[in-house]
Amino acid sequence: MNITIIAVGKLKEKYLKDAVGEYSKRLSRYCKLNIIEVMDEKTPEKSSEKEENMIREKEGKRILKHLNEGNYIIALDLKGNMISSVEFARKVEQLALAGNSSITFIIGGSLGISREILQKSNYKLCFSKMTFPHQLFRIMLLEQVYRGFKIIKGEPYHK
């Protein structure tokens, strides 16, 4: 299985890079992982809704350049479906069984994901109604993907 994560923004902190490296190493037993970072836009302090939409659109165009036609696209979105780790694992497993061997996850910037990218997505996933920094969220997603593969394989993993 091929897993691609397209994320807006670069990781700067060493501890975040180390965590991504650790999960990347763990996931290498289960899938081919590709992480693509696209540049984020600076958001003015008191931005209007129009300015925020323009920022999401600019970031969306950068994401769009990296989307592959045959990939199943999962956008991480606050309005998406909230599912358990076991349900997530089953979703990944069902996609693989249906012939979708390439899954792309999209993590937007601090303002979320553009309408165009959301429309191109096959599925919208929400981890929580809480707000998380998108840099930290990358690690949370990697952990859930890793947990999902452990569940699929019937291997032990802490609960």
From TrEMBL:
GO terms for biological process: methylation. S-adenosyl-L-methionine binds at residues 76, 108, 127-132. InterPro entries: Alpha/beta_knot_MTases, RlmH-like, tRNA_m1G_MTases_N. The keyword Repressor does not apply. It holds the Pfam family SPOUT_MTase. It is found in: Cytoplasm. Its EC number is 2.1.1.177. Its main location: cytoplasm. GO terms for molecular function: methyltransferase activity. It catalyses: pseudouridine(1915) in 23S rRNA + S-adenosyl-L-methionine = N(3)-methylpseudouridine(1915) in 23S rRNA + S-adenosyl-L-homocysteine + H(+). Keywords: Cytoplasm, Methyltransferase, rRNA processing, S-adenosyl-L-methionine, Transferase. Homodimer. Belongs to the RNA methyltransferase RlmH family. Specifically methylates the pseudouridine at position 1915 (m3Psi1915) in 23S rRNA. This is Ribosomal RNA large subunit methyltransferase H. It comes from Clostridium moutaii. The gene is rlmH.
